[in-house]
TrEMBL record:
Region of interest (Disordered), ranges: 32-52
Protein name: Rieske domain-containing protein
Residue ranges annotated for the Rieske domain, each copy included: 55-144
One Pfam family this sequence matches: Rieske
CDD domains: Rieske (cd03467)
InterPro entries, A to Z: Rieske_2Fe-2S, Rieske_2Fe-2S_sf, Rieske_Fe-S_prot, Rieske_Fe-S_prot_C, TAT_signal
GO cellular component terms attached to this protein's record: membrane
Recorded superkingdom: Bacteria
Molecular function, one GO term: 2 iron, 2 sulfur cluster binding
């Protein structure tokens, strides 16, 4: 009869399962060279993105009103006294997402840049204004569509 360090079949089974788990860990990158970083998060969608707002509905809101579409395509939809416009929520300093307007100001949480409601710079370090985006209606009177790939002048309203 041979001698081994396992006194019961259960101890032997436990040892074998542990050895398999260790082997699997090493095979999956435990050696260091095979480790891979988690993939970066996908970029926000871009292109023509349909909002849940209509022109008539948003024009019925008080001035100013901001709709938060940072989760849809990283932009803000704003109603001011001249109409409706969209503006990127991407800070022109280093690309952080700006906060929602507080009063008449939009602040970037990363380094403190401040913009006015039209995207103009009030305080650095950002030196460029927030970019305005094309706004159209999906159908006449229908939902508003913001194209994050088409910039327009800051004076454009619909
Ligand atoms: S990224 Fe906005 S202030 Fe730096």
């Amino acid at each position: 009869m041979s001698q081994n360090s396992f006194s019961t079949p259960m101890q032997r089974r436990t040892f074998c399962l542990g050895a398999l788990a260790a082997a699997a860990t090493l095979g999956c990158g435990g050696g260091g060279g095979g480790m891979t970083a988690a993939p970066p998060p996908p970029p926000p969608p871009s292109g023509a993105l349909q909002t849940t707002d209509t022109r008539s509905g948003l024009l019925a809101e008080p001035v100013p009103t901001t709709r938060d579409y940072r989760n849809l395509g990283n932009f803000l939809l704003i109603r001011d006294s001249g109409g409706i416009y969209a503006m990127t929520a991407i800070c022109t300093h280093m690309g952080c997402t700006v906060g929602l307007p507080a009063g008449s100001q939009i602040t970037c949480p990363c380094h403190g840049s401040v913009y006015d409601l039209g995207g103009g710079n009030l305080q650095g370090p950002a030196v460029s204004p927030l970019v305005h985006l094309e706004v159209t209606e999906a159908t006449p009177g229908g939902l508003l569509v913001v194209n994050t790939l088409k910039t327009v002048a800051a004076s454009v309203r619909i």
